[in-house]
Structure prediction request, 119 residues.
Amino acid sequence: MVEHQEADKIFHVSPFFDVSGRYAFTLRTSSDTLSLTIDKYSDAVRDHLATLKLRREPMNDKNLARAFFAIPFLTFKVVLGIHWEALKLLVKGARYHHKPKPPISASVARLSRIPSPHE
Prediction:
């Protein structure tokens, strides 16, 4: 199954992007994988791409223990990775955008219902 959604960017995500542009979300699911792709566009040109790819694993003691003990290290890895990428952007001369005031309108809306694979 493939599901597509688009939304205007109205919230602050990164100090290296201003609050403008448009997001395109693509969710792909199969019996053993799930992937999410987020494309950010400014003036109809993609300027950022983020992906998440997951693989289904059996729920057993070994996999649950591995996930439980990996979470603290995964959090550290993500925080370190974010700051490493920010440092690289600063060295390249990327423009820094201060966090703006939040929008008055809600930034979360239900766009559509994605059916569960278990239905």
Summary: The chain has a mean pLDDT of 87. The longest helix spans residues 61-91.
